Amino acid sequence: MAGSVPILLPESFGAGSMYYVIGQATRGMNAQVSEQVVIDFSRLKFIEPIGVVILSNLIEYLARAGIPTALAGVNFKSTAAVAYLDDSDFFKRYIGRPLREWARARDTCLPLTMVSNAQAVGYLHSTLIPWLAISLNTSEESLATVRICLDEVFSNINFHSGVDYGCLHIQHFPQSKEVQIAISDFGVGIPANVRKVRPELNDSVALALACEEGFTTQSNVKNRGAGLATLIRYLTLKDRGKVWIVSGEANLSAIHDNAAKKSKVTSRTVKGFYPGTLVRITLKQDSIRDLATDVQSEEFSW
Amino acid sequence: MVIRILDHVEHASSYEDGDVIFKLISAPISSGEDVVVSFEGIQAVPSAFINASLVRLAELTTVGEIRAHLKIAQSTRQINDLIRSRFDFLANMVS
């Protein structure tokens, strides 16, 4: 019998709790027992940047399946996490107005944004990179490699997800000197795409393969298998940041290996399912000077 | 023959942008003519652009022939690194 599925968000919502929340919402949907999902924010005290895009994608995903979402436990006296969501335009998007009259974008984050594949290049050039340059007190030119990395994520959505937009949220953490960029789609997912050509692979192996240079599903003539490898190389080969990719029943982390002076990529199977793909890019603020060297003129030689 | 990318596309950002350049250089490169591709005014490019504009040349001729006739001008470290890594990968595949 159809009914309302309540989901009580934990005190901290992010990497550690996302599978539980997504599982609660999608189990009811898959069993066709949900006529409404109620997300309760009353316990929520902290939300990671990825939590913002996951909640957004989840609501949009349920809506596409014809299941409305109600938001409970939110009011203008709510917790700092709810105020943060309010300042990130979350409630403006999902209940039609901010919770607080004084809600406004904070200097340290860009509001939640749905970026369509057609708009991605323009959004990166005219909104995200100019904002990031101001936040990090650097030039837009010096962040060209960051723009390229994000371009690769949006290309992946464009070519493989089966949906026409990604959800993006970005936050600067001045104290820990890093920027977190979260981009998510609730599309087909990377392992499912890889299995179109390698059906024998589990999600963890499939995700790792998709991040190797040269692997292509040839699902689209425009894809030639370098995007995710390029993203990982630019950020982790020289310790400029790290990448975490979540899709299906697997996730993959890419960091700089100080001892070996190269990227270290680890893929693992998880007890949970991510319907689509989540990419979290963590950019070290101290890497800005190094990033700027990428755009220096250099004579080409083979 | 010199092709300045920004004379032909607004951005060097997408597969479609790269395809415009590919159509200009594919015939000369495959017939053994020297072509200079100038990245003047461009700081960085994504893999989709390089795949569409340059990597597809390997469907028409050998990597050796491409290296012999394709010249890259007014580029940056990022652009050079991406072009080299894509062609090194292709060369390793066939060796």
3D structure, described in words:
The complex is a heterodimer of chains A (302) and B (95). By secondary structure, chain A is an alpha/beta fold. In chain A, 35% of the residues lie in helices and 29% in strands. Chain A has helices spanning 18-30, 49-64, 80-87, 90-94, 120-135, 144-161, 190-194, 203-210, 227-236, 288-293, and strands at 3-8, 12-13, 34-40, 46-47, 69-72, 109-116, 165-173, 178-185, 241-257, 262-284, 297-298. In chain A, the strands form 3 sheets. A 5-stranded antiparallel β-sheet of chain A has the order 6-7-8-10-9, with helices on both faces. In chain A, helix 1 (18-30) packs parallel to helix 2. Chain A starts with a strand and ends with a strand. Chain B is of the alpha/beta class and 95 residues long. Chain B contains 4 helices and 4 strands. Chain B has helices spanning 15-30, 47-53, 63-69, 77-94, and strands at residues 2-4, 35-38, 70-73, 75-76. A 3-stranded parallel β-sheet of chain B has the order 1-2-3. In chain B, strand 1, helix 1 (15-30) and strand 2 form a beta-alpha-beta unit. The A-B interface holds A 121, 125, 141, 144-145, 147-148, 151-152, 155, 213-214, 222, 224, 226-227, 230, 233-234, 293-298, 300, 302 and B 11, 13-15, 43-48, 51-52, 55, 67, 71-87, 89, 93. Strand 11 of chain A pairs antiparallel with strand 4 of chain B.
Percent helix among the residues of chain A? 25-40%
Radius of gyration of chain B: 12 Å
The biggest sheet of chain B amounts to: 3 strands, parallel
Number of DSSP strands of chain A? 11
What distance lies between the first and last C-alpha atoms of chain A, to the nearest angstrom?
66 Å
Mean pLDDT of chain A, to the nearest integer, reads 90
N-to-C order of helices and strands of chain B: EHEHHEEH
Distance, first to last CA of chain B: 30 Å
Number of helices of chain B: 4
Q: Total helix count of chain A?
A: 10
